């Protein structure tokens, strides 16, 4: 008994490593990392989303560009006539604004329902939440690439004063992608818990469209002394700054760096808010859906 007791006292049980809790930064960043590693999966799913939407149609995904061209042409001609604008400059202006707006609007609207729409996958497929965010942003990027054809055609028909500043369109679009990701993550988690959020966001998105200089020109209002002061209220709309940082280089306009500073600050604040939300509530999404 003595020898047995000695052996019992002398034996040591290996300590188990401390597992991070459900509300930990390691799990939050781990979710983002694991989702990024599954690029082949969400890349394939995003492309399949587009193919399924236009399944059995004659033009297929080309309907994306056709719809964009029809809407941009109709709105450009209509509002150009109302405001007395030159169609050669106003039509590319409206089309480029719509091109950017469609990407932003898609991330906002679909982002608020990204986890609700993927309820089955979240419940039965052990995959990181970020996979659904990557899939959504990738799908919207493909839509953007399809619609970019309309911009190319209009630039060929109505030549714009493009210059080296066109290269700024690349970091500007990457900034839009980052914001689309954090908006989808933040609103997606909140809307999963509170189902009244998606309709509210849908209504606000419609309002944002008319508050954003897409079918009207902000610079034109600033030149009018009667409304110049009130027109500056438009800069309180954060979407305006993201539209301008991409539209200005795509049309060869003068780069206004103020929009870049504001867009960068919004991006930092938004990413921090989305990471906090992911850290605290990622483990509850599967129960909320």
UniProtKB/TrEMBL annotation:
Any one GO BP annotation for this protein = lipopolysaccharide transport
Keyword hit for Transport: yes
Where it mainly occurs, coarsely classed, is: membrane
Q: Where is this region: Disordered?
A: 1-24
Q: Which residues cross the membrane?
A: 62-84, 90-116, 136-158, 164-185, 197-216, 259-278
| GO terms assigned for molecular function | ABC-type transporter activity
Top-level taxonomic group: Bacteria
Membrane topology of the entry: Multi-pass membrane protein
Q: Where in the cell is it found?
A: Cell membrane
* Any matching Pfam family: ABC2_membrane
Q: What Gene Ontology cellular component terms go with this record?
A: plasma membrane
User: Keywords for this entry?
Assistant: Cell membrane, Membrane, Transmembrane, Transmembrane helix, Transport
According to the entry, every stretch annotated as the ABC-2 type transporter transmembrane domain falls at 43-250
Q: Please state which protein family the record places this protein in.
A: Belongs to the ABC-2 integral membrane protein family.
What's the name of the protein? ABC transporter permease
